[in-house]
Amino acid sequence: MRGSQMASQDNPATVSRSRSRILFATSGGGLVVALVILFGVGRWLVMEDPLVKARAIVVLSGAMPLRAIEAAKLYRQGYAPEIWLTHSTEPGATLEEMGILFAGEDHYSALVLIHEGVPPEAIHTLKPPIVNTADEIKVIAPALAPGQDDTVILVTTKAHTRRVRLLWRRLAPGQGRAIVRAASGDPFDPRHWWRNTRDALEVVREILGLLNAWAGLPLHPAR
């Protein structure tokens, strides 16, 4: 009887079926984990800091006019006495080569801010020109003069918040505190980001940007 049981256990077909079940269970479990990560990545990308009063509110370049509108709202709520803009080189530089005048994104953001009730004297554009978010942080951090309030509110869009915080920690250690906030009017849907191409492209871009930041920014923007 015992020999019959041992023979059954050692039967190649039985062993094969057992291995197949284990492989199927493992693959199924891996698929479930992958789907949880995939569908949860949108929410993971969005992370905001609690608001506190700051030296300035900074409108990060891009997604105009959403970020400027949010900055104006924070200004009206009294979170900072100034709003800082950055000056992006594009598409102005390319258009200038074509003989086409373009005032610059900061110019139009300033007009949005004024439209939203921010006085012109409270709006300042930082120098030098920037290309990407890393450049912006390298311009913003030194503007926080020692001995003064070293807190700044960085206004961006929802999916971009985690990368902005990571870049600040990597590029501006000990140079002030950054409060990262997302534009409340941003239509990005972190729970269902795969339902439209706009949100899906944002997620892909942010994941690639985070990988680059974690790797020490080996990839640089084309200038």
Please give the alpha-carbon distance between the first and last residues: 79 Å
Q: If strands are numbered along the chain, what order do they take across the biggest sheet?
A: 3-2-1-4-5
The count of DSSP E runs of length 2 or more, i.e. the number of strands, is: 5
Q: What share of the residues does DSSP label as strand, in percent? A: 5-15%
- CATH topology of the largest domain, which one? Rossmann fold
Quick take:
The protein is an alpha/beta fold and 223 residues long. It contains eight helices and five strands; from the N terminus they run ααβαβααβαβαβα.
Structure, explained:
- The protein has 223 residues and is of the alpha/beta class.
- It has two domains: 2-35; 56-214, 3-Layer(aba) Sandwich (Rossmann fold).
- The protein is built from eight helices and five strands, in the order ααβαβααβαβαβα.
- The protein has helices at residues 2-9, 12-45, 66-76, 92-97, 105-115, 133-143, 161-171, 197-214, and strands spanning 56-59, 83-88, 123-130, 151-156, 177-182.
- Strands 3-2-1-4-5 form a five-stranded parallel sheet, sandwiched between helices.
- Helix 6 packs across helix 7 (161-171) and helix 7 (161-171) runs parallel beside helix 8 (197-214).
- Mean pLDDT is 86; it is low at 28-36.
Which features would summarize this protein structure in a list?
5 strands; 223 residues; 2 domains; alpha/beta; 8 helices; five-stranded parallel beta sheet; 13% strand
Q: Strands, helices and their partners?
A:
Layout: H1 2-9, H2 12-45, E1 56-59, H3 66-76, E2 83-88, H4 92-97, H5 105-115, E3 123-130, H6 133-143, E4 151-156, H7 161-171, E5 177-182, H8 197-214
Parallel strand pairs: 1-2, 1-4, 2-3, 4-5
Helix pairs in contact: 3-5, 6-7, 7-8
